[in-house]
Amino acid sequence: MSETLKVYSPYDEHLLRELPLDNADELERKLRRANDLFQNRDAWLLKSERVAVLRKVAAIMADRLENLTRIAAEEGGKPYTDSRIEAERAVDGVHIAIEALRSEGGREIPMGTTASSQNRIAWTVREPIGVVAAVSAFNHPLNLIVHQVIPAVAVGCPVIVKPAGTTPLSCLALVDILREAGLPEGWCQTLIADNDVAEKLVTDPRVNFFSFIGSGFVGWMLRSKLAPGTRCALEHGGVAPAIIEPDADIEAALPLLTKGGFYHAGQVCVSVQRVYAHESIVDRVAGGLAERAAALVVGDPLDAATEVGPLITPANVERVAAWVDEAVAGGGQLLCGGKALSNTCYAPTVVLDPPADSQLSTQEVFGPVVCVYSYRDRLEAVGRANSLNVAFQASVFTRDLEVALDTVKRLNATAVMVNDHTAFRVDWMPFGGRDESGLGMGGIPYSMHDMTRDKLMVIKSKVL
């Protein structure tokens, strides 16, 4: 077994860095350290101390925005412009955590409404839940780590974070910044490890909360192995649908669908993948989307002109190509793309009416492919949009408010965008999948709530 992890550029596959792998003994030392910190109440960090650290973290990140952007773009393959936005969001995420510490808390529990509850006052406080194990994904290598690590630090939980093996460098940079900002040793530790060691982390009974972002297969498997009492939040993927009604502003919708479908080469859990366009406008929607997709600049993520970068590994290029070939062979109409541009890049692709049972229609492609389907009746489109066992974010384009509201009501999704693409997100909103797409809700304030638990205090006094 290799004792190092080699991190390669997903674009040209040059070696970026070689990191030592943590083994089971090193994991045990990290778990023991985190657990000892949590069990020693005298060692808990004051809220004011945590705020001071987070303020310094945000300031250091802002000063190093260019460096953080380039690290994320180079290791993850997201184009520079989009990686810059990710880095800026990451800085704002730290500020969101600080704001939540000032606004979120416990509440008064009414007493005195019965004879037995007289002469009492009661309220809850939120305490840290305990040791947090965070396992992250590759597609937003900095901001996802912020979403999993910063809430834990903010509420006072020791956290051990395992970044994706393809994109660990942004995580290491953030943890270094936390230490530079004054976070004491042990409160945030990294785990660079193979899957066996990572599973030992997740399933250890000393872990109180498991935060996971990644594939549904892995997430649900790990949840089934959690120790009794370990809470969790799982964020998986979806096959996001967008419904385009005949009265929609198509010229306004097309650039949004293009961005939502091909942002980060489609490697986003809420990327536009299934576009249901009314039969009266389907040719216009599909043709316009294909024209825009074909014009996108594919290439080096560090080139400012690049709009679509590589897939994370060559194996994913091969997989996406196989799925597209299957759909076209089954009767889908290839409108643009449909080919690998290199062993790391795949051309932005639009397929019209692929078979309903094809992999493109039923599974998350996680690649630069958008499918367009014709429909006659809106409720039919809603039924097809709801037909899969995944449900995350969705959208509807219409000028009719009642149609929009009715569609929002009928779509099985945790969030429905009206006249916007499915991949819209800000970091303070609730974000997560339902059904097989996940468990619980992300978003920095929501994660902070999950990483704390209520403690009730009841005071009895004859003067009350």
Largest sheet: 7 strands, mixed
Task: Give me the side-by-side strand order of the main sheet.
Answer: 12-13-14-11-10-16-17
Could you list the spans in which at least 5 consecutive residues all have pLDDT below 50? none
Write the CATH homologous superfamily of the largest domain.
Aldehyde Dehydrogenase, Chain A, domain 1
Terminal CA distance: 67 Å
Task: State the share of residues found in helices, binned by percent.
Answer: 25-40%
Number of strands: 20
Strand percentage lies at: 15-25%
Number of helices, counting only DSSP H or I runs of 4 residues or more = 15
Q: What overall form do the CA principal axes indicate?
A: globular
Our Rg estimate from Cα atoms comes to: 24 Å
